[in-house]
Design goal:
With 252 residues, the chain is of the alpha+beta class. Helix content is 20%, strand content 29%. Strands 7, 8, 9, 10, 13, 14, 15, 16 and 17 form a 9-stranded mixed sheet that branches. The protein has a 4-stranded antiparallel sheet with strand order 3-2-5-6, with no helix packed on it. The protein has a two-stranded antiparallel ribbon with strand order 1-4. The longest helix is centred in the C-terminal third of the chain and has 10 residues.
């Protein structure tokens, strides 16, 4: 059967998918890239691309969108103080507010979150268009700690803290933390400092929930040596050269 005209096919081992390439170049998300391809607006080596999963070589292939060549944007590294109530995604089908609402009005290329904070969580969120840098921080082998301050609906004694530290298996998954320490307690609530080596889905909430402990607030205050500090809620800023160097040392 003859191939459709203007279709380019490459062995699966070559390069990256076209949708990922457009994301890596800082143009848009993968989902948005798939829409651009479906609309026939993307060309590779002068030919219309019909398949967002086709393999491309970023160092060799000329990729255009609406006739304009797509080139790598400047690398951007941001820290955001995520407010509670926003979802960590570009587009939300339910129409909820997203972390991108905090970036409106800023002159930025397309950036993606480095990991996630769920809707009810707040605090330090990194965003970048440097996928290699992001993957280095997210790789469990790098052991970059994430520090959270967590308000819970009980005042635990040392025995209960010991149970938290021992971890628990939930749905066949062992949930543990690098460390769990009491920050302060009063009345019927307490604040814990919890450090994670990895970022499983809703890890802290699931771990504490297994002991029938309610999480009232969950704030990420640090990633490795990088502190949230006094950055205002809902605001973002560029990381400094010194902060990037600190994180690079952590992720090696």
């Amino acid at each position: 059967m003859a191939r459709p005209p203007h279709t380019i096919r490459r062995p699966p081992s070559v390069g990256v998918s076209l949708s990922r390439a457009l994301s890596k170049l800082g143009l848009c998300s993968r989902k948005q890239a798939e829409l651009l391809v479906a609309e026939g607006r993307v060309r590779v080596a002068g030919k219309v691309a019909r398949d967002p999963s086709m393999r491309v070589d970023l160092d060799r292939d000329r990729i255009t969108v609406d006739g304009e060549r797509v080139v790598a944007e400047r690398k951007v590294y941001l820290m955001l103080n995520k407010p509670r109530g926003l979802v960590t995604t570009r587009d939300d089908p339910a129409g909820r507010g997203t972390v991108y609402d905090c970036l409106e009005g800023l002159d930025l290329p397309f950036v993606s979150p480095v990991g996630r904070l769920d809707k009810a969580s707040e605090g330090l969120l990194l965003m970048t268009n440097d996928t290699r840098w992001a993957n280095g921080l997210l790789d469990p082998a790098s052991h970059v700690g994430k520090t959270y301050h967590v308000q819970i609906g009980t005042s635990p004694d040392e025995t209960m803290l010991g149970r938290f530290r021992s971890g628990v298996t939930v749905d066949g998954e062992l949930l543990t933390a690098r460390s769990i320490e009491m920050l302060r307690s009063g009345g019927r609530t307490a604040w814990l400092e919890i450090v994670l080596d990895e970022g499983r889905n809703r890890q802290i909430r699931r771990l504490l929930g297994a002991f029938d402990v309610e999480v009232l607030r969950l704030i990420r205050v640090a990633i490795g040596p990088l502190q949230l500090g006094d950055l205002a809620k809902g605001k973002a800023r560029h990381l400094t050269a010194e902060e990037l160097a600190m994180l690079a040392g952590e992720s090696k």
